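Handoff note, outgoing to incoming analyst
You'll be picking up this chain. Sequence as last confirmed:
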Amino acid sequence: MTTESLVRPERNGLDRPISPSARDIDRLTREVMAHLAESDEQCGALPGQTLVRDVKAVVRICLGWLIHCVNGHVLPTSTDRLAIAAAGCTREGIPVDTVLHAVHEGFKVGMDLIFARTGPADVVGVVTGTARVLELSKLITATVSKAYVLEHKAVAAAHQTAAQSLTSALLAGHLDSAAARESGLPIAEEYSVLAVAIPAHPDERHPRLDGQVVARRKLRRLQAALATIFGGHALSLLSVDGGTILLPSTVRTDPDLDDLVQRMSSATQVPLTVAVVTTRPDEVPTAARHAHELLDTVQQLELAPGVYRFTELALQYQLTRPGIGRDALATRLTPLDEYPDLLETLQIYIDTGLSRTRAARQLCVHPNTVDYRLRRIAHLTGCDPAEPSGLWYLRSAIVARRGHPAHRPTRSTAC
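Most recent structure output, in case you need it:
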């Protein structure tokens, strides 16, 4: 035998071909599966029926192709059977590395068969058989991997559709609708309804970037964070500006929400503002409306990003509700409209904890000037900020004014 014959072998198969009968393939498949069940912890831990039905089907197909190839035949032109079997493994939750490991164990058996049927002089048979096994291994690995990816995409799309159907049914109060029944997702005993405001990412205003693309990426990061943090149990209807998230009671506790929202903000790369209301499934529509009203209150008061509840802002929420009470409070500060320095002084005086010294420092004036302005406020409004009752009225009037569309104060703290 010459070197040229090694590069261009004259024969295509083994001197002693391997039997391709179904009986022999079944026997080899059983040997591979028995070896896996005994020696591999990952495969051995799988339920027996799942192991037999799904992984065994993949191994049997691959062993049949292996024998076909090392006997001198061409690689299979259709891989549909293997793709279907691999997709079945995906649906059963069998990891792709487990399936590929089983396939590679089958290839070891095939290599043993090749060497068992060749001798020292049959170098061409070894080279040809090995080359065919490697080519087949590449084909099978690509087919199994692609089947797993496609099946996971299909499952994710189906879950997303079901989740959107259930979310819409809950928010609309249609739990008895066909969409809710057909979603296949469990309905929790209780939900935390989150009204979410998503601010613009700094890059959305970058002159060299497409703001819409940046905004969509921001939203995808939030959706990915929801899937990661809550294991796919969070229900949401979101846009790039915000929306509603429903968290089942099984995946959160109220004290944990602050940390969870912080993690969501970190993943999204923008500080989220969230108003939360906890309720039963049949009261989700009302809770969602209240949560968004509370979120509006938070934004009107220009509060910092974070998590807000009615227990923290019940008074502010009530003061900003439309009605005669809000209107009366908002107009209490009307006499100060002609004196923006007085309005600014009152707000800063309240924000600094009623400290005339700190207020004066922030306003860049003398403390006596703060005292003078506070006396002027008392004279013009009839409410003395130095008296508890007068201060309460003035603070309430500021809150009501911010919630009134006709009164939006402008503030400037620059010296």
